[in-house]
């Protein structure tokens, strides 16, 4: 595979690298080209979304590899999703010979259709896929998109040939829940109406054929179109990705050719639009419709495609203007971020507003994921109104101090089993305030934040509540999982972490600190300053392993995290920490439309003070044993106790398992730490958790470590937080490196994920990686993975730019002194 970054040299230059040239009139901000062999890789997947939870997913070459492949449309946005199409049917006839351009795997390594054999390559332009095939001297190029709010997949075909050829188009149709498969041929009824065919089962699918027209409305090239009498036939499909996950491996579709299009010598252009019929429609470029009970129809698929391309380029441009970092990774991830922001609330009584799909293809919208991802999805990308609306969506669903952990895929209700989601909301609200200076919004939402904190102080569901003895936040009851390490297998909570988990205490301090600082910024008295002070002292006394050898850590002069705001430049990085100003009359940069605020020098980070005496002994535990017969791995060193306890139990005992939660905790600016402690945590993280693509969830030296994330769900879930690598906590590690001025190390830490962007879910970041092999797993498209890589990359880039500017100024000063 070869990259086609921005501003490369022309193709005829000495370097020979092709410049990014996008079809049509819109120049892409991001482009990546795969050669024929790489494009055949079934693990390369593309994702298109419609902003309502609907999506179209397949391998880059167009091969369906999961039951989620094809066109999935939401009945109650963004959930209650059903699959309508597994793959288009595409056949080319040249000189009396015909070949199927699609490719369906029917058994491992056995394909119906020759689509893979005929590939010349594939390119993604701002994450819109273009596939090109060649057969008998005929080139067929296919573009795909999902226009916003459409529930439709648009496929544009461009054929170039010296002789007349015939292109036959149709589809392999299903009518089922996206998580399920058909064990027998689906019962579908095909009703043709010229250039439209209705495919009806429990739900309905509209399929339409279009020809490219000139300004007078005449078909270009005068193609001959023949509507075929539908003769659907069952077609078995094998899903290799589902087989690897121990899921049902086969589906049964109905394949049906619908039209044949004979193109004159020279070729021509046609479009196939497949649209789920779900309810009230909207209109957009290239679409027509009254907004009634039927979705809008497409009058001009090419106009709809151009509108989507223009929209994506604008997303990249806005992120460039917001961050000041104009590179291809920012452009790519800004476009990727858009896929997770969805509208919800079409169902009666359901929450309305903006939400975040946690990951594609199987997750619904989750509160914890939304709040962690908010900074990267919206603030870094300049989508400030979306950030505001996202906060309001979850604030509007608060219940006894909690916000939804997740909304049900069925469209009925939500679960509230999360202790950290409301605390991450407080962090996200403060970051929004720092980025925008939006005093009006803070005045509107601060009472809700105080209400939530008050409920947590008094105590709420699932054993969540402030411990009056030390002002820390305890959580947990039998059979319930409440932190981000949340796997539950039947009655087995794999990582219960009941008591006082370390990142929960750091988030509790951050939420209390946010209430204090936001109140002060508005000139109001804070409500929980005393609780914050008590909790701060309790954290210092209870969480540090004071018997740990801190002298083994590297020594360095550290910048306080509170100084990140001013050292990394501007309102964007001030979103992380430091003092800030709220203004009712916001300043607006007329050149970019970005909201600005001026931040004075940041307050120093709280520190824990001198280390008290040793607490080693019975009060400290490194737990072991997992009921799976997994013990010490051959060739590994004995487990070492954590520098910072992962959990403090009800009796004050410390769980000293080495997990990434210590890094997450220390990256939050209210967490007390001295330089030597931070050095020791970083050294331990690098020695035991750090990988090229993220952090292990448990040290490989721990006897409970499970290094294989794969196979059936039981095995995957058991390993999910017991050694599996997660990308999103890497951003916290990077923040700590930047706090100590280690910019080069921070950049190196992101190198693996930066490359991974193009090798699984294209343009995105996977949910997890297997602990031993680092093979990507889980969702290939994960919201907080994308958001946190983007946020970390921008922070590192701003630091690099600052160093370069300081060097330039020094050089200028030396020149002037001469």
Account of the 3D structure:
The longest helix is centred in the last third of the chain and has 35 residues, at 783-817. With 818 residues, this protein is α+β, with helices and mostly antiparallel strands. Helices cover 28% and strands 24% of the residues. Helix 3 packs across helix 4.
Key features of this structure:
818 residues; alpha+beta; nine-stranded antiparallel beta sheet; 18 helices; 44 strands; 24% strand; globular; disordered N terminus
Structural class comes to alpha+beta
Calculate the terminal CA-CA distance, rounded to whole Å: 50 Å
The amount of helix comes to: 25-40%
Strand order, largest beta sheet: 1-2-10-11-12-13-21-17-16-15
Q: Brief overview, please?
A:
The protein has 818 residues and is α+β, with helices and mostly antiparallel strands.
List the helices and strands and how they pair.
Layout: E1 2-3, E2 31-34, H1 36-39, E3 45-49, E4 55-59, E5 70-76, E6 79-94, E7 97-100, E8 104-107, E9 110-112, E10 119-125, E11 128-135, E12 138-145, E13 152-160, E14 165-177, E15 189-193, E16 196-200, E17 204-211, E18 224-227, E19 233-238, H2 240-244, E20 250-263, E21 268-277, E22 287-288, E23 297-298, H3 301-323, H4 328-338, E24 341-344, E25 353-356, E26 359-360, H5 367-379, H6 384-395, E27 406-407, E28 414-415, H7 421-436, H8 439-458, E29 465-466, E30 473-474, E31 488-489, E32 492-493, E33 500-501, H9 502-521, H10 529-542, H11 564-567, H12 570-574, E34 587-588, E35 595-596, E36 620-621, E37 647-648, E38 654-655, H13 661-666, H14 675-688, E39 690-691, E40 694-696, H15 713-719, E41 725-726, H16 730-739, H17 743-756, E42 768-769, E43 776-777, E44 781-782, H18 783-817
Parallel strand pairs: 36-38
Antiparallel strand pairs: 1-2, 2-10, 3-4, 4-5, 5-6, 6-7, 6-14, 8-9, 10-11, 11-12, 12-13, 13-21, 14-20, 15-16, 16-17, 17-21, 18-20, 19-20, 22-23, 24-25, 26-44, 27-28, 29-30, 31-32, 33-37, 34-35, 37-38, 39-40, 40-41, 42-43
Helix pairs in contact: 3-4, 4-18, 5-6, 5-7, 5-18, 6-7, 7-8, 7-9, 8-9, 9-10, 16-17, 16-18, 17-18
């Amino acid at each position: 595979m070869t990259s086609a970054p921005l501003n490369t040299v022309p193709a005829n230059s000495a370097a020979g690298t092709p410049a990014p040239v996008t079809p049509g009139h819109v120049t892409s901000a991001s482009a990546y080209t795969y050669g024929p062999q790489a494009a055949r890789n079934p693990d390369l997947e593309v994702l298109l979304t419609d902003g309502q939870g609907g999506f179209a997913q397949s391998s880059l070459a167009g091969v369906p590899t999961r039951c989620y492949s094809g066109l999935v449309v939401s009945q109650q946005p963004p959930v209650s999703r059903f699959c309508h199409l597994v793959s288009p049917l595409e056949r080319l006839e040249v000189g009396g010979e015909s070949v199927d351009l699609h490719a369906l795997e029917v058994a491992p390594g056995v394909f119906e259709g020759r689509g893979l054999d005929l590939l010349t390559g594939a390119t993604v332009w701002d994450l819109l896929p273009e596939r090109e095939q060649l057969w008998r001297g005929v080139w067929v190029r296919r573009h795909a998109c999902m226009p916003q709010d459409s529930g439709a997949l648009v496929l544009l075909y461009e054929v170039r040939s010296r002789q007349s050829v015939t292109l036959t188009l149709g589809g392999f149709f299903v009518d089922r829940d996206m998580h399920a498969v058909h064990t027998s041929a689906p019962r579908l009824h095909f009703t043709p109406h010229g250039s439209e065919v209705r495919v009806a089962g429990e739900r309905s699918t509209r399929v339409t054929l279009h020809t490219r027209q000139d300004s007078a409305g005449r078909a270009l090239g005068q193609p001959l179109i023949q509507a075929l009498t539908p003769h659907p036939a069952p077609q078995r499909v094998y899903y290799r990705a589902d087989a690897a996950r121990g899921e049902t491996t086969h589906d049964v579709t109905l394949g049906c050719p619908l039209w044949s299009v004979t193109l004159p010598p020279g070729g021509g252009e046609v479009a196939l639009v497949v649209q789920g019929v779900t309810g009230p429609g909207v209109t957009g470029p290239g679409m027509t419709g009254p907004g009634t009970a039927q979705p809008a129809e497409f009058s001009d698929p090419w106009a709809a495609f151009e509108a989507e391309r223009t929209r994506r380029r604008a997303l990249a441009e806005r992120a460039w203007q917001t961050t000041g970092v104009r590179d291809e990774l920012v452009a790519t991830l800004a476009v990727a971020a858009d896929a997770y922001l969805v509208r919800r609330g079409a169902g009666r009584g359901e929450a309305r507003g903006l939400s975040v799909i946690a990951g594609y293809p199987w997750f619904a919208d989750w509160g914890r994921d939304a709040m962690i991802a908010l900074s990267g999805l919206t603030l870094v990308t300049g989508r400030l109104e979306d950030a505001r609306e996202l906060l309001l969506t979850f604030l509007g669903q608060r219940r006894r101090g909690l916000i939804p952990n997740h909304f049900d895929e069925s469209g009925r209700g939500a679960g509230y089993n999360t202790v950290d989601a409301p605390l991450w909301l407080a962090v996200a609200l403060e970051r929004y305030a720092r980025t925008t200076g939006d005093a009006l919004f803070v005045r509107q939402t601060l009472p809700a934040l105080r209400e939530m904190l008050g409920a947590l102080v008094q105590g709420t569901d699932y054993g969540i509540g402030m411990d009056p003895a030390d002002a820390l936040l305890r959580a947990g009851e039998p059979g319930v999982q409440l932190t981000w390490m949340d796997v539950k297998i039947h009655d087995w909570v794999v990582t219960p972490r009941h008591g006082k988990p370390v990142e929960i205490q750091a988030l509790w301090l951050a939420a209390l600190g946010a209430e204090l600082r936001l109140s002060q910024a508005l000139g109001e008295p804070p409500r929980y300053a005393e609780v914050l002070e008590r909790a701060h002292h309790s954290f210092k006394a209870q969480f540090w392993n004071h018997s740990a050898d801190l002298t083994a850590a590297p020594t360095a002069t550290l910048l306080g995290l509170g100084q990140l705001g001013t050292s990394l430049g501007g309102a964007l990085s001030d979103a992380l920490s430091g003092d800030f100003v709220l203004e009712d009359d916001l300043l607006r940069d007329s050149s970019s439309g970005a909201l600005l605020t001026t931040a004075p020098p940041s307050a120093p980070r709280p520190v824990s003070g001198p280390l008290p005496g040793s607490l080693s002994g019975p009060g400290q535990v490194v737990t072991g044993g997992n009921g799976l017969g997994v013990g010490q791995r051959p060739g590994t060193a004995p487990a070492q106790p954590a520098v910072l306890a992962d959990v403090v139990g009800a009796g004050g005992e410390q769980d000293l398992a080495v997990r990434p939660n210590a890094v997450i905790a220390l990256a939050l600016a209210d967490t007390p730490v001295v330089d030597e402690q931070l050095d020791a945590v970083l050294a331990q993280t690098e020695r035991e958790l750090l990988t090229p693509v993220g952090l292990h969830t448990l040290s490989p030296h721990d006897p409970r470590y499970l290094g294989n994330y794969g196979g059936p769900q039981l095995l995957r879930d058991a390993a999910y937080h017991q050694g599996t690598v997660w990308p999103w906590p890497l951003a916290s590690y990077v923040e700590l490196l930047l706090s100590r001025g280690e910019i080069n190390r921070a950049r190196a830490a992101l190198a693996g994920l930066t490359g991974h962007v193009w090798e699984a879910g294209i343009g995105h970041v996977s949910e997890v990686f297997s602990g031993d092999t680092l093979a990507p797993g889980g969702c290939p498209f994960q919201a907080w993975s994308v958001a946190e890589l983007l946020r970390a990359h921008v922070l590192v880039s701003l630091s690099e730019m600052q160093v370069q500017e300081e060097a330039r100024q020094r050089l200028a000063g030396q020149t002037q002194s001469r």
